[in-house]
Write a structure and sequence with these properties.
Blueprint (H helix, E strand, L loop, with lengths): L3 E2 L2 H23 L4 E7 L3 H16 L3 E7 L5 H13 L5 E4 L9 H7 L11 H9 L7 H13 L7 E5 L6 H10 L3 E5 L6 H6 L3 E4 L17 E4 L3 E4 L5 E4 L4 H7 L2 E2 L6 H20 L8
Parallel strand pairs: 1-11, 2-3, 2-4, 5-6, 5-7, 7-8, 8-11
Antiparallel strand pairs: 9-10
Helix pairs in contact: 1-10, 6-7, 6-10
The structure holds NADPH dihydro-nicotinamide-adenine-dinucleotide phosphate and 5,10-Methenyltetrahydrofolate (GUE).
Length: 294
């Protein structure tokens, strides 16, 4: 069997087009341009790819993009001062502080300082808590994108066996919460899980976010399962160049899975599309308007 490849690029493009149309209408009817401020501290190579794609797609969707690139030595106080300034800026509806941050800065404190209404990453405890209890919130982008991709294969996830490999606050845990909300039966596996391979093999939907290049092999996958590969890993490629691979061994998985997201072209583009959708949503809610669903 050869798995169907889930086209994250195409779905992301359709979401971005919808954001662009809604943003144009918002500008025409209310004179509001949703603004996204992104803060990058230091020079993490993975983060730079993200920033580059993000700025381009933000402006293409008709949103305003405010980039703040700070040196790696930036103090925590200086970063917190910038976050407070962005909280107070009426042109800024969404704030994203790129993670990871350099060691002198406490990421929890930075996230806690972001106005929850502008927290388009959905990392603030207020948004994380709202997601858990099922209240309206800004939902983390990568988890939102991952579940939207799974739903292209299974529009109704009710009763399906879902395994999430990884329990980080930014990916694994919110993915699990979204799958619970979709009425899947959810198992969260991590580095202390016993017999990981057997746990993964139970999954109808396997979402992998471990940050280990090609760790999940074909033998870990139930025949016909849907595999959502969140991993973005840069590994040495041919003639000195690097290439991107996921956390799943794509070649092996293709032989077993029913459907799989590629890397690149899977979850990555969806993360950015959902970020733009969250920024539009934040701008509309800030102005007392009802945002569309995506
Ligand atoms: N596509 C996108 O837009 C995005 C992609 N990513 C990618 O997703 C991946 C995960 O990111 P993130 O959640 O931030 O990573 P973290 O490092 O924060 O979390 C990794 C999780 O995987 C678990 N884990 C690590 N090694 C193993 C192992 N050998 N066996 C079982 N479990 C293991 C850890 O377990 P434990 O908790 O026990 O330590 C942890 O829960 C990365 O490749 C990252 O680059 C991230 C964000 C966005
Ligand atoms: N506060 C915060 N929020 C994040 O969401 C966040 C973060 N920090 N730090 C870094 C990670 C990583 N991340 C990516 C998003 C999109 C692509 C992406 O667009 N990937 C494309 C293109 C890759 C390429 O250009 O080759 C793809 O997979 O097809 C990659 C990586 C978001 N992250």
């Amino acid at each position: 069997m050869t798995a169907r490849i889930i086209d994250g690029k195409a779905l992301a493009e359709s979401i971005r087009n919808k954001v662009a149309a809604e943003a144009a209408e918002l500008k025409r009817s209310h004179g509001i341009v949703p603004g996204l401020a992104a803060v990058l501290v230091g020079e993490n190579p993975a983060s730079q790819v993200y920033v580059r794609n993000k700025v381009k797609q933000t402006t293409e969707a008709g949103l305003a993009s405010f980039e703040h690139v700070l040196p790696a030595e930036t103090t925590q106080d200086d970063l917190l001062a910038l976050v407070r300034q962005l909280n107070a800026d009426p042109k800024v509806h969404g704030i994203l502080v790129q993670l990871p941050l350099p060691p002198q800065i406490d990421p929890d404190l930075v996230i806690a300082t972001i106005d929850p209404a502008k927290d388009v990453d959905g990392f603030h405890v207020e948004n994380a808590g709202r997601l858990v209890v099922g209240q309206e919130s800004l939902v983390p982008c990568t988890p939102q994108g991952s579940v939207l991709l799974a739903k292209t294969v299974h529009p109704d996830l009710t009763g399906l066996e879902a395994v999430v490999l990884g329990r980080s606050n930014i990916v694994g845990k919110p993915v699990a919460q979204l799958l619970i909300a979709e009425s899947a039966t959810v198992t969260v596996a991590h580095s202390r899980t016993r017999d990981l391979e057997a746990v993964c093999r139970r999954a109808d939907i396997l979402v992998v976010a471990v940050g280990r290049p090609e760790m999940v092999k074909g033998s870990w996958i139930k025949p016909g399962a849907t595999v959502i590969d969140v991993g973005i890993n840069r590994v040495p490629g041919e003639n000195g160049k690097s290439r991107l691979v996921g956390d799943v061994d794509f070649k092996e998985a293709m032989e077993v899975a029913g459907a799989i997201t590629p890397v690149p072209g899977g979850v990555g583009p969806m993360t950015i599309a959902c970020l733009l959708a969250n920024t539009l949503k934040a701008a509309m809610v800030a102005n007392g308007l009802t945002p569309p669903s995506f």
